[in-house]
Amino acid sequence: MLVEGKPMRTIWTEDEGDSVLYIDQTLLPYELRIRTARSWERLVQAIERMEVRGAPLIGVAGAWAAALAVADDPGGNELRRRLEVIASARPTAVNLQWAVKRMSARLSGLEGRERIRCARSEAARMAEEDVAANRSIGRYAARLLRALSEARPGRPLQILTHCNAGWLATVDYGTALSGVYQCSADGIPVHVWADETRPRLQGLLTEWELRMAGLPVTLVADNAGGYLMQRGLVDVVIVGADRIAANGDAANKIGTYLKALAARESGVPFYVAAPFSTIDFSLSRGSGIPIEKRSGGELREIRGVRPDGSVSTLRIAPQQTDAFNPGFDVTPAELITGIITEKGVLRPSELLEWRPQ
């Protein structure tokens, strides 16, 4: 996507794969900084710290971490140990485990330079596949949004999203926002309401990337979604997902479930956009999705800009405040109108028809 008129991806490589470069998303929207990881441990750290975030991007970052893990030619138990560490860096996003399993299978039986070459090639292939899948998601989403827009002539289509599922959450284009970008390219007027998404404020990333792209976007408090829907100010809700069970239950950033409930009550369609790599066919229901529990410090503190322009962290609750901080919740399939994938828009009940044999 474009940042101040320049094309940019969230992650890429240099030095023939010896270095992995990525946007440090913990500094956005205040500062755009590129970090360099030259070891698999550093890239795992980036995943854990949410310097890279978003299920599809985490998967590709995990693939590149695996490629870095074989760079000094470990094998046997050491390679298995490294891959296990990478796969466990974030528990909810299934794309990470999916990517590591795929890398492990691809590297099986290879040794030396051939294993290193294959690891880099496979990670690069997965990055390109992510871009292609996201563009396809955008095309299917744009068809859906066009139909909704044509039913509401004379004004922009009003879209509500929660968390960030744009190009920052993928290698490029995004999932939930991919359709928004495609609509813009097709001349379909849209406006996005971006939930702030406490406590990590990923909604600020949504506002930043849409503003960089020159698209109309308004930041709102997390609890404003119901208000907007009650008053007819939202035509459709589109969110991403970190893991989707086989029955269509979908895990996404904490607070998504409440948006789905409000959408049903208000008669607003609620869509999930995600690639097939986010569907975990091994889980029959969303109750089996592991929910990441993050530090309570994320609730007790907040980052922002001081009057002098410096970025700093401010404590908003006493250190001894007890805080519970689940990173995700699960939206039941019956609240989801459809799941937008690179293969089309599917009803949750249709997912099992696509289960790999």
TrEMBL record:
It catalyses: 5-(methylsulfanyl)-alpha-D-ribose 1-phosphate = 5-(methylsulfanyl)-D-ribulose 1-phosphate. Substrate binds at residues 53-55, 90, 202, 252-253. Transmembrane segments: none annotated. Pfam families: IF-2B. Pathway: Amino-acid biosynthesis; L-methionine biosynthesis via salvage pathway; L-methionine from S-methyl-5-thio-alpha-D-ribose 1-phosphate: step 1/6. Its EC number is 5.3.1.23. The active site is at residue 242. The record marks 163 as: Transition state stabilizer. SUPFAM superfamilies: NagB/RpiA/CoA transferase-like. It is an enzyme of class 5 (isomerase). Catalyzes the interconversion of methylthioribose-1-phosphate (MTR-1-P) into methylthioribulose-1-phosphate (MTRu-1-P). PANTHER family: METHYLTHIORIBOSE-1-PHOSPHATE ISOMERASE (PTHR43475:SF1). Belongs to the EIF-2B alpha/beta/delta subunits family. MtnA subfamily. This is Methylthioribose-1-phosphate isomerase. It comes from Mesosutterella faecium.
